[in-house]
Amino acid sequence: MKIALSWLAKYIEIKENTKELEEILTFSGIEVEAVENIPALPETVFSAKIISAEPVPETDHLKRCLVDIGNFPCPEKTEDGYLQVICGAPNCRTGMMAIIALPGSVLPEMTIAKAQIKGIDSCGMLCSEKELGISDNHSGIIELSTETPIGITANELYELPDTIFELEITPNRPDLLGYIGIARDLSAKLNRSLKMPEIKIPEAKCKAETMPLELVNKVPELCPRYIARLFNKVELKESPLWLKSALIKSGLRPINNLVDITNYVMLEYGHPLHCFDYDKLAALPEKPGIPAIVIRRAYQNEPIITLDGKSYLLEGEEMVIADGIKPSAIAGVMGGNISAISETTKRIVLESAAFNPSSIRRTSYKHKISTDSSYRFERHLSEYSAEDASIRATQLICELANAELCEVVYDSYHIPVQPLIIGIRPSRYTQVIGYELEEEKIKDYLTRLGLKFIQYGNWKPGKINSLAELYCHHTEEMKQGKTEFTELPNCEHTHYYEIPPYRVDLEREIDIIEEIARLDGYDKIPVKTLPQRIMDRHSYRIKKNAVDYLISRGFYETLNY
Questions:
Q1: Which of 29, 355, 386, 524 could be cross-linked to 332 through a Cys-Cys bond (beta carbons 3.0 to 4.6 Å apart)?
Q2: Please, which residues have CB within 8 angstroms of residue 29's CB and are 6 or more apart in sequence?
Q3: Which of 260, 524, 490 has its CA nearest to residue 393?
Q4: How far is the C-alpha of 144 from the C-alpha of 44, rounded, in Å?
């Protein structure tokens, strides 16, 4: 997973240099596989306006452009104050805002110089993303918003210089599969505040009867939660530069504003989303006229063509998101092209769901489809994060696609997950890790990680699924209205914490102990020599003969402590 330092810094203050941050991530249990530094570009690379773009005679693609570079001093300016540039990009046209590199600019793969093309002076270059070293896209020159002022440097537009970290996230930490998760973990380690995005959802303008939907979940054991939000009057267009830049740095290719929004939220929250074209969804035969979404198992030999144009024959065990007749997506893996967003799309359904990780893993492996979506869903995403991601995407769709939100939220949530409560004994921490830690420090570390302190109490082994279960020994005190309880005699002193829903990896006391040791620093764990016994010669010979005999019979020897 790639993360850009400029994007990460929106959620937590980063004071460390690249090397220091790499070490902090590594010692926090997040392996850094590679680090890429994107250098700053020269100040002579900035936004400019193409005043005119006229075809060059006797060529089929070159255009002679007059470019307004504002007040920037350049000796090659014409008498009108413009710069003449020859450009062959197919999207080059009069009136567009682009990025120009003046003569003398040193770019990653070339140095710009004044040249003659077809006998015409060209004083600079209108740049593509590839020429600036931002991405591999060279299908056309960069097109900026018409509201972009002339003279804004490429460094400011693309937040350069920047650093890209490539991380290896272990399967037990799905909460780290997004920028917010990484920032949240760093905020706990560095004891710094976490800055969450400000989310304001506009008032719903679309009435329920305007966009009715039939949501049927036939496999709640495979899809514990499915949220559908509907939008009307959607405008499909190119994403703003900040959004495209964020995706490019994180290793994804911008497509259009709707797809880019779902990818952006996936990278931000670590939870994949999907958009269906509402008008392409068929109704159930028994409820004609109402588009349907049905979560079910695939039928035997049921065909589907996915977004990448490939055909698959499903075997019956896969979970699909279907309409009233046919599958519209392989759940958690890839959408189908039959309900895909297109240039004619005006109404959409936004999907945010939680799927059974084993089901997604089997489907992905069976059909050899690996996507950013399946990579995340295979690792057990929280039902709570489905709601968070849906709300964030709703905000961005309304803002960037000028969409009208429908007043009804469809939420199939059969058995809401209750927060888990786990006890941690300070004495057990000392026994396992090898040194004593102050109780207030334990409380501070766990609070930083998002665990909610419930109560000091007596040790109760195993999982605790409710406060009533925790307080079962304090019935009389509860009747008296007490919230602080006396500890029972002959019981170990214990801290009880409510586990945040995104930490699905925390299930036992030993998991909590590991988290405390991680935040306190593995380097503080004392090194102790393991006890050794000196074996007499006779015992040694007996042991060696036994080992030799067993190995000769095909056994394998395992050395342990």
A1: 355
A2: 170, 173, 518
A3: 260
A4: 17
For residue range 344-355, list pLDDT tens digits in order. 999 999 999 999
Quick check: pTM over 0.70? yes
444 SS3 class: helix
Tell me, what amino acid is at 173?
A: R
String of DSSP letters for 195-229: -PPP--PPPP-B-GGGS--EEEES-TTT-SEEEEE
Contact 152, 96 (CB under 8 A): no
CATH of domain 208-413: 3.50.40.10
What pLDDT, in 10s, does the model give residues 493-503?
899 999 999 99
Q: Which CATH architecture has domain 421-524?
A: 2-Layer Sandwich (3.30)
Q: Please check whether residue 166 is in contact with residue 1, taking contact to mean a CB–CB distance below 8 angstroms.
A: yes
Q: For residues 481 and 341, what is the distance between their CA atoms, to the nearest angstrom?
A: 56
Three-class secondary structure of residue 479 per DSSP: helix
What value does the CA radius of gyration of the chain take, rounded to a whole number of Å? Answer: 30
Q: Which range has the worst mean pLDDT, 58-72, 302-316, 536-550? A: 536-550
Residue-wise pLDDT tens digits, 249-268: 999 999 999 999 999 999 99
Q: Tell me the C-alpha distance between 155 and 307, whole Å.
A: 35
Residue at 549: amino acid letter: Y
Strands (E), 309-432: 311-314, 319-322, 327-330, 334-335, 348-354, 404-413, 421-424
Per CATH, the architecture of 2-39+161-190 is what? 2-Layer Sandwich (3.30)
Separation of alpha carbons 383 and 376, rounded Å: 13
State the span(s) of the chain assigned CATH 2.40.50.140: 45-158
Inter-CA distances, 432 with 77, 516, 525, Å:
74, 12, 10
Q: Determine how many CB atoms are found less than 10 A away from the CB of residue 524.
A: 11
Q: How far apart are CA 403 and CA 88, in angstroms?
A: 36
CA geometry: angle 299, 304, 305, nearest 5 deg: 175
| pLDDT(272) > 50 | yes
pLDDT digits (tens, 9 = 90+) for 142-172: 999 999 999 999 999 999 999 999 999 999 9
Q: Which three-class secondary structure string do you get for 282-304?
A: CECCCCCCCEEEEEEECCCCEEE
- The helix-helix angle for 18-27 and 179-190 (nearest 10°) equals 90
pLDDT of residue 480: 58
CATH architecture of 45-158: Beta Barrel (2.40)
Residue 108, CA distances (Å) to 132, 253, 460, 461 in order: 7, 20, 62, 60
CB atoms within 10 A of CB 286: 8
